[in-house]
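Q: Got one fold?
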Amino acid sequence: MTSTVPNAVQHTDAAAPPITMFGPDFPYAYDDFLAHPAGLGQIPATEHGQEVAVIGGGLSGLIAAYELMKMGLKPVVYEADQIGGRLRTVGFDGCDPSLTAEMGAMRFPPSSTALQHYIDLVGLETRAFPNPLSPATPSTVVDLKGESHYAETIDDLPQVYRDVANAWNACLEEGADFSDMNRALRERDVPRIREIWSQLVEQLDNQTFYGFLCASDAFKSFRHREIFGQVGFGTGGWDTDFPNSILEILRVVYTEADDHHRGIVGGSQQLPLRLWDREPQKIVHWPLGTSLASLHGGEPRGAVTRLTRTAGNRITVTDATGDIRTFRAAVFTGQSWLLLSKIDCDDALFPIDHWTAMERTHYMESSKLFVPVDRPFWLDKDELTGRDTMSMTLTDRMTRGTYLLDDGPDRPAVICLSYTWCDDSLKWLPLSPKERMEVMLKSLGEIYPNVDIRSHIIGNPVTVSWENEPYFMGAFKANLPGHYRYQRRLFTHFMQDKLPADKRGLFLAGDDISWTAGWAEGAVQTALNAVWGVMHQFGGTTDPTNPGPGDVFDEIAPVELPED
């Protein structure tokens, strides 16, 4: 159990089949596609060695480049900042280099099975992440309106929290066929998935998360809605999501994306970095020992400053050095807003409806601040109460979520003093790292008046506000009500046969193109869609025994809502 407000149905039976499809919109088994011995497809030998631009060196870009290289193409990776994107792991100046902080993605659900394929491929390990009330978390403190409650399980919290849990369970069952959909996803019952979801998309596309709660008799109490927003489930309070489309929330809870999280030992950025250096054993055209790094002389090319269409339906890329290259195909994996601002783009790159969808994409803000400490002092027992000195903390104070991260009782450790989203994140934006830390220590001092956190800090804080990062401008996409049609256009863009010839060849990927932004699985899935699109563009095919996402698209395409 990892949540203060549990999901409607608990799935802890080891014999139960796992959730392996990340969302009901496009129920395609990407994990089976990746595991099949026939591979992802092949291109004609006459096309081997052809260059393909891959713009963005985050997880989606690195996976697309890696798989295209294996097919015999030559990916040319452009990266404005550093390999990894929002898989960004940083150290602390002057501290043990093993002491790290995850500035972006830090917890991954087991339902991310395509992601897990690559984690296993590069030999990384995972371990349970200390979410509120998870088995990996010794204790949790919920602090609301100046009143704190210490808990090791949800049963230790006051009755009102269980009332809120029951309200959420009832709301999901009555309004979203939760158990039925969860079961259908688990059993890969595609007809049933599509039947349930088609009705819900039509009914709920215009509904906010908050409106969905208010429409349920179970949540007629404002107090219950307030507690739910501040404490939430799985990863903490979700009131910052209240204005977003309820469809976004349902995708998360159906697939248990908010539960059973694991972190990558040593940091998540290792995944794209290892893919960059990896020498695949099965590779076409290129000699054994070839890697993305070797194809690039060790470093990716720099930032893209201009994208245009040129004669012959080519994509022409200009980078920050002024170098100009022209490609028959390109994959864009950065945040889509970059195409509207940081990169000088030709209007002819996309159909107008796709430009509209990118312009309407709604990004959430997110901030974190970490400090290194001498040891996991929070595991010390209070002599009077017998409780942990400090706990994973959820609060309505400015810190909102505080996470305690250690690698053993005798080693230095890390505290994520605050992890916030949206308006809560914007409150931190004008403050320097040290100013942020001071406000956070003051808030936590009010919750733990007898704990001197400052005396354990051994280095300077590190922080990020993703909305202020010039090559991101936000943390992750979150659709507003009425945005389903926009997201469908972006997700399905890899299917280009019906587009005019002068609108083909540039493929969108990245988690904001997926149905489940904010989760690395979406970056993986859209990368694989783009790989299929590029392969198809070059006249390639998949093996008949392992059809790709484009081969089965017509059978499982996302629901199409009317435009009029």
Observations:
- The chain has 17 helices and 21 strands.
- The two ends are 45 Å apart (CA to CA).
- The first strand starts at residue 51 and ends at 55.
- Residues 159-176 form the longest helix (18 residues).
